[in-house]
Amino acid sequence: MSQPTTVAAAHHHAPPQGFLRKHVFSLDHKVIGKQYLDLALVAVCTGMVLSWLMRFHLAWPETPIPGLGTLSPSGAAGGVITPEYYLALMTMHGTIMVFFVLTTAPFAGFGNYFLPIQVGAEDMAFPRINMTSFWVTLVAFLVLISAFVVGDGPPLSGWTAYAPLSAVGKDAGPGQGVGQTLWAVSITLFCVAQLLGALNFITTTLDLRTKGMSLARMPYSTWAWFITSVIGLIAFAVLMPACILLILDRVAGTSFFIPAGLVISDRLQPHAGGSPLLWQHLFWFFGHPEVYIAILPGFGIISHILPVFARKPLLGPRVLIACLVSIAFLSYTVWGHHMFLSGMNPFSATLFSVPTLIITIPATIVTLLWIGTIYGAKLRFTTPALFCLGFVSVFVSGGISGFFLAQPSIDTYLHGTYFVVGHFHFVMGVAAMFGIFAATYFWAPKMFGRMMSETLGKWHFWLTFIGVYCVFMPMHYLGLAGNVRRYSAFTDDYLKPLIPLHRFITVAALCTGAAQLIFLFNLIRTRLRGPKAPDNPWEATSLEWSTTSPPPFDNFGGRPPVVQHGPNEYGTRGAAGDYVMQASPQSAGPA
Amino acid sequence: MPGIATPPAPIVPPPAAPPTVAPRTITEPSPPQSAQTGVWIAIGTICMSFAALTSAMVVRQGAAPDWRHFQLPQLLYVNTLVLLASSGTLEWSRRRIAAVSVGAPGLVPRLDGLAGVYLTLALGLLFVSGQVIAWRQLAAQGLFLATAPSSAFFYVFTALHGLHVVGGLLGLSYVLRRLRRVAGPAPQIALRAAALYWHFMGALWLYLLVILATRV
Amino acid sequence: MGKLFAVVLAIITVVSTAIFVTHTWWLPVDISAHGHAIDHQLAETMLSSGVLFVLSQLALAAFVWRFGDRRDGRAVTTFPGGVTPMVVFAVVLVGAEVLALTFVGSKVWAGIYQTPPDPNSLQIDVQSEQFAFYFRYPGPDGKFGATHPELINEASENYFGLDPKNDVSARDDIVVPTLTIPVNRPVALTLRAKDVGHAFYVPELRIQQDFVPGLSIPLHFTATQTGKYEIVCTQLCGLGHYNMRAYIEVLPAAQFEQWLKDKAAQQ
Amino acid sequence: MRIRSRSLLMIALLGSAAMVTPGAPPAAGAISGKVTYTGTPPKMKPIDMAKEPFCARLHAAAPVLTENAVTGPGNALRWVLVYVSAGDQGSAPSTEPVRLDQRGCQYIPHVLVLQPNQPLDIYNDDSTSHNIHPLAKVNPEWNKSQPVGAPPIHTKWEKPEFIPVKCNVHPWMHGWHLVLATPHYAVSGEDGAFSLQGLPPGKYTITAWQEQFGTQTQDVTISGTETKTIDFVFKATPY
Q: Which ipTM was obtained for this model?
């Protein structure tokens, strides 16, 4: 690691003048971070509305949804969702949530805003590339959303887009024509954006750390963003060529993923020799590291916020970093557990199940570190603290159900059922979201210079925490009963008795969804008219709290900080209380 | 769309007014090696992408007996020499500029070293047009993108590599403009990074030539 | 506030675990020779991870209950023994459990998917298509006719693209939408997909396998109980994915032979 | 897919002449006759609808047979379209809606004849979801589901074409939408009989089309109000 020889002063650039340069095409990593967060906010609202439609259709398939008929006459004539429209909603829900919310918000959004400040830099290493990566992500999101209004509707091959259903074209069903091509183009653009983003994160972390900010003294959220960008670099670099090959199969008539002799919609397809498993291998080689890209920033955020409200140092920070690194490495050896029953050689199923089970060990250690940190703490139950505790509990539930799916013998029964849906929603749909909520409540004072309302925050927490358990724990029971996922209606005899449980889940999902409006209202009201926030409302130690709220254009007002301590100085007698700021000259004595 | 991983454009100090008579006196401390780190990471990404495509080619070749071997156009070997030559001229001019400006960090002595960079740009363009001509020759033989999986992979590999070479050319021309106008070490750091990227383009092409010659 | 969190979390843990333990929603009856091994593996994992789940959730709840900030100037204390018990617990206990589950599990998996089928098992050709399963028996001559994708004509029920005009062995092939098999006799299926990816899943048989277009994938099992069960598709294959079902009828041996004879007569 | 180039048919269809003034119908002749077959037709196999319990229960008593070559008493051939392919003075295509039913997992009628821009209403009378997928080449192809409780689909075909229709969810469900420029057409019934009414005097080419056995044409001249009888005989092959 090259220790920066000179202070990063040379990296300054003049504050922007015009409105465009200041707010729209800005080079400032803070504006770009907020732009990513706003994009993720729009995306999560879209994704959530789609999930409401899906859940309502599953519970009451024949009841028309008012207004939907006019909104999408072909997909839901008369308000009754057709099977292909349900699958299209599911595909868009999955793609929007995984890419444009769980990768964009915790990694690109908060990472862009806080990584430079936390390492004491003025900005990212390459601001122009940083701006480009946001605008390419926005274009990717618009290309994806345009699938709703173009051709015969959005694609219906799921966020995993297995070939040949995704590669054959409009013969494979409605939505597989223009819609699927837009999906592939959107994901290719998203990959380009993330590669440029990851490049920025790694270079900034390696080169632009301020004086005294050694790697060991970096806050744990910075560590998480750094390791996530290394994973992202390799994962998205594999998904991009895979999507390019898929687009060529769809439009240029090549046969990378389509075998010979397929008769679809009574037509013999003009392809030969391709291998559908090749797409699955390429996709999941990216796919599993992607789920760690979604959760690792959450690990970093929780490890960063928990000590602040426990008022004591995080237990075993070096072990935490070792676990993050080992998870990052192991995440590239486990992709086959998505394909146990896919027709791949059965022997490799055993091969992939071993690292999958081994990766539970670092995950268990990280969870135990958090629980160990809470032991002997002086917990302050602010909203971000509650969301951290919620994160730990929900991550444990999600992780435990991973034990079942990691074993090929049990996966024989549980693969493709709601057990899998419950598992990944608990770990990604809820735990990662709790990470984003905790980060928002924790850093809102710093980002917007205004405090978010604690009472609304607590209402939001309790309704969401209980709500998500009511929505996603029953999915495990449905999975045990063999309820197959991605079904737009339950007409099988053995599924009919499960419909009341689906109705319970739908009601819980609608209530939990409504609870998110509290968060939305709280966030918007805070940004417009929230009470002024002090520089360090939570009495935290890391560098972002040693500057003003919101920070000036170059983060530290021309005086880059000199770091004396690590981020873990809580519970020690310091100048301003039981903590010592990273940049404070005074030595950190024992408590 | 410009090359996927155009070499990172390092921060330009506040756009100086057009070079006044006396070059700007303040010499800013040399920026950290971020351009260099950025290029190394970009190289890692590009390697991963081409590794994924290589594994896809190997799997696709084994998936079905329809892999049709064909003779690579001889022009590709000429193009290889052109690309290696362009790396050579770039390295020569980079070292010359570095040696010359050690003495006097002004603008004037550096100008004669730029000839090499211009030559590199020309050779780069020659390489890209050579590749397009090679495509034409292949098309003349009736081997198009969708004709056979082997030709499909040939076109995908050469297209992606060509795209990255064009990105490299854009980066080089950007660095060239800064070399002519900005004093101090910053442009040289950028030149060293751009040269590293360009040499990687050469190495990547050699790798592609080997796997294409053996498998296609 | 901390106490409220601890209580809510404890209730959630107890209720969820109770529903698991009392098998309110559980696997259907097992009618497969290899099913018992899978059920045992599932029960084993349910027990060990259930304990892990309850312990960690209740530990979290207990610590949150006890260590709220009561502003009594009490100094913070670190976990006894620091980080080593965490690492030791995770590596030793979880690691041991992981190895046990892997070792036992791999034998169960190998028994189903890595052993060749019994030589005298009943050969059936299964074709999945956009949104139905069709099963083909070789018929009295014991040989399957060749299939030609370009001759497929659903209107005249030629789902496999057989060419009875000049392929004698195809004339007596029996094509039915219901998989009818004898009880207690091994059955060897060959799974082929006509268009996109599908899957063959019978919860009662504890068996599941994807169809991959371009591949014909072997799958074998033995049904140990008669009755009519549902075959469903678990691989997303398009708009009719939810309706892509067939029935599997397990008949006593004599009744099956009679059924086979009747079908051959109808050809 | 029956190997029969549709382009031949298109030329015959486009031969119809200019508009005819509505006014009082002139003295009209008629053509009637019977469609029969020789040779052994393919055996109509019973359709096993086990996959769809709702339809299987409907047809439990009398299983439905495949309909690609439906025969009747006396070697009669059903579902054969007989229409005026040339010599028709042409008239405004009728606008009263045509109804297609999906009942018991079958298209009723199996062969639906209509004219360009004639309103077509598709109803789903079953309590299971159907998916109508007309494999049109000249007209724009579409593929829509009609779940239970969904309203009927109102659509139309602009250009004349013989369009096979399939249901993606039930593979055995097949039918035809035959879009004809001429209003003079008939579909042979159980007994293979057909009759074309209201033909002004003139020279006509009559074409008979069967989905598996192809087409046959005959020329007829109508001088006054008499009824000419012509018969079509198709050669049937077992496979």
A: 0.89
Quick: pLDDT tens for A151-176.
Answer: 788 999 999 999 999 999 888 888 89
Q: Is the peptide bond before A61 cis (omega within 30 degrees of 0)?
A: no
Choose the closest CB to C159 out of D169, D171, D211.
D171
CA distance A365 to chain C (A): 6
Query: For residue C224, what are its two tokens?
Result: 């140990």
Domain carrying residue C169: 122-266
Q: Residue A238 carries which side chain, given as an amino acid letter?
A: V
Structural domain harbouring B144: 34-61+74-215
**Beta-bridge partner residues of A579:** A570
pLDDT at A96: 97
Q: Please say if the pLDDT value at position A550 is more than 60.
A: yes
A315 occurs within a structural domain: yes
Report the C-alpha gap between C113 and C220 in whole angstroms: 8
Please state whether at least 3 CB pairs lie below 8 Å between chains B and D. Answer: no
Q: What is the pLDDT of residues A477-510, one digit of tens each?
A: 999 999 999 999 998 889 999 999 999 999 999 9
CA-to-CA distance for C109 and C112, rounded, in angstroms?
A: 5
- Mutation to test the B interface, candidates A123, A131, A190, A203, most B Cβ within 10 Å: A203
User: Residue C193: what residue type?
Assistant: A
Which phi-psi region, left, alpha or beta, contains residue C119 (left: φ > 0; alpha: ψ -120 to 50)?
alpha
State how far the Cα of D48 lies from the Cα of A9, in Å rounded to an integer: 80
Global pTM reads 0.91
Q: What is the pLDDT of residue A12?
A: 56
Task: Kindly report the nearest CA distance between residue C72 and chain A, in angstroms.
Answer: 10
| Sequential DSSP letters for C141-178 | TT-PPP--GGG-BGGGTBTT---TTT-HHHHT-EEESS
**Chain A residues touching residue D141 (CB < 8 angstroms):** 170
Nearest residue to C42 via CA among A356, A397, A401? A401
The full set of domains in chain D, from first to last, is 29-81+196-239 (2.60.40), 91-181 (2.60.40.420)
Domain membership of residue A385 as a residue range: 25-259+269-574
pLDDT (tens digit, 9 = 90+) per residue, D172-206? 899 999 999 888 889 988 888 888 888 888 888 88
- Partners of C137 in the β-ladder: C174
Overall average pLDDT of the D31-57 stretch: 87
Q: Within a 10 A sphere around the Cβ of A511, how many other Cβ atoms?
A: 15
**Domain count within chain C:** 2
Q: Write the CATH number for B45.
A: 1.20.120.80
Nearest-Cα distance to chain D for A275, in Å, is: 25
Residue C28 is assigned to a structural domain of this protein = yes
Contact C12 A341 (CB under 8 A): no
CA proximity to A435, closest of A235, A264, A209, A220: A220
- Cβ–Cβ gap A416/C83 under 8 Å: no
Q: Tabulate helix, strand, coil % of chain C (nearest 5).
A: 40, 25, 35
d(CA C244, CA A354) in angstroms, rounded, equals 34
Subunit contact C25:A480, Cβ cutoff 8 A: yes
When pLDDT is averaged across residues D116-133 and rounded to a whole number, the result is 91
Q: Give the chain D residue whose CA is nearest to the CA of C166.
A: D239
